[in-house]
Amino acid sequence: MEKAQLYQEVLNELSEFFSHYQNLSDIAIMTTISSVIHMKFPQLVFVGFYITREANAVKYLEVGPYQGKVLACAKIDIGNGVCGTSAQRKQTIVVEDVNRFETYIACDCASKSEIVVPVLHNDEVTSVLDIDSDVLGYFTEVDKEWLERIISSFLTN
Ligand code: SME
């Protein structure tokens, strides 16, 4: 089945699921999104969120709900790794080969390519969606478009 079709199923399943609930917390929404995406694509080794936190007036990313086989690192500085770079630039980042991304942070050695999509509220990055694949060059514009659509449908206001 084509990727676009699978993403359409993800969007439909999430819409249907969330229609049964009112006022779900962001954590519940992030958990459900991670789970549905992870179940749909066997090529994904990690699907999860990092949430923006602040300590002593310095922002950083802290691990949030995720699906994967290894423990994800718990803290990432803004500007570091693919996640921190996406949070800093407020842009989706597609990495064809993680070994070629200068500040890449390795959590799972099975990971070969990665996409990170920022979640914005009032132009502030409140979290990022991080997805890793064990296939080199797995992510394309198709993933970027659909994931941004999923995020804007359920997590941004
Ligand atoms: N690779 C990420 C770190 C998080 S793990 O992939 C779960 C990065 O470079 O930001």
TrEMBL record:
InterPro entries: GAF, GAF-like_dom_sf, Phosphatase_reg/MetRdx. Transmembrane segments: none annotated. Belongs to the free Met sulfoxide reductase family. One of its GO terms (molecular function) is L-methionine-(R)-S-oxide reductase activity. Residues 62-151 form the GAF domain. This is GAF domain-containing protein. It comes from Blepharisma stoltei. One of its GO terms (cellular component) is cytosol. It comes from the Eukaryota.
